[in-house]
Write a structure and sequence with these properties.
The protein is of the alpha/beta class. The chain has 4 helices and 5 strands; from the N terminus they run E-H-E-E-H-E-H-E-H. 41% of the residues lie in helices and 20% in strands. Strand 3, helix 2 and strand 4 form a beta-alpha-beta unit.
């Protein structure tokens, strides 16, 4: 079971992301839970959240995959972090599940 950090400011969207993570058999954790980047295996981040990009940078430095989900198209600063996927809301939750599974499988191959 992987620990997936969710950084999403909207409670309803956060609940949907948690649902996907749990349905995949993983644990959803939040910044509010006082987790650190080294405590998680991957993340789903809204880059527009004030905590999003700093955490994404830290995670990428640690080799952790990041999936971005935003209402805005990707900007160069975000794409330079080489996300496992970038989704523009709304998107199909199955797409997120596929991207997370692939990101975790790739990470496991290098651990």
């Amino acid at each position: 079971m992987a620990r997936i950090l969710i950084v999403e400011p909207h409670a309803d969207i956060k609940a949907l992301l948690e649902h996907v993570v749990r349905r995949l058999g993983h644990e959803a954790v939040h910044v509010d839970d006082e987790c650190s980047a080294c405590d998680v295996d991957a993340a789903v981040i809204e880059p527009g959240d004030h905590r999003g990009l700093p955490l994404a940078r830290e995670l990428r430095l640690l080799g952790r995959p990041v999936v971005f989900a935003s209402i805005f198209p990707a900007e160069r600063e975000v794409l330079e972090l080489e996300p496992a996927a970038y989704f523009v809301k709304p998107f199909a939750l199955t797409e997120l599940a596929t991207a997370l599974s692939a990101a975790l499988a790739t990470r496991e191959a290098f651990v």
